[in-house]
Amino acid sequence: MSSRDRILARVRAAVADAPAAPAITRDYLTSHTPDDPAAVLDLLHENLADYRAVVHRTDAAGPLIAELLAARGSGSVLVPDGLPREWLSGATAVRVDDTPDSTAAELDAVDSVVTGCALAIAETGTIVLDAGPGQGRRRISLVPDHHICVVRVPDQIVASVPQAMSRLDPRRPLTWISGPSATSDIELDRVEGVHGPRTLEVVLLSG
């Protein structure tokens, strides 16, 4: 009998005579935001900016992303598999493919990364990636210093975390991003870029 089996046997014996757990009450509000797509979009924009993300609204991602990469002086851009080609149609930066054998040092040498997302949550200003097409693996959103993330409006925006959970697959590798990487010490000195990109730019793509 393994240690695991012994521990589980003790747990089962300890709760054998316990009463059945009460039913979980789920009559809580699933959103605190009016059911208005324009209001949800404005709230997302506000909360993303509050977390110090740089937010852009557009109906044509390609020209804007090319402009953002050029403004930053990015000579290279990491491109996950499945990213829509038109999003980088005007970019002049050298495109670097996301490959399984890419080392952390190689990823750190890339100037920028462009990804899509699974969805965005307005009430918390959070973007969620699930490694789907155009998103790549978790590490490409953590190592490069500059992350441009495209959110399709309104299809990928939800108001609240409960609404997000009903649309996400818990079996997928979920990365929740609320602004650029930041940490604070006991004196509340904020430092950005310790655990991920110093700069997060969110493109809210309509249409």
From TrEMBL:
Sorted alphabetically, which Pfam families does this protein's record hold?
LUD_dom
Superkingdom to which the source organism belongs: Bacteria
Q: Which InterPro entries match?
A: FTHF_cligase-like_sf (IPR024185), LUD_dom (IPR003741), NagB/RpiA_transferase-like (IPR037171)
The UniProt record lists the LUD domain at 101-205
Protein name, UniProt field: Lactate utilization protein C
Q: Which organism is it from?
A: Streptomyces mauvecolor
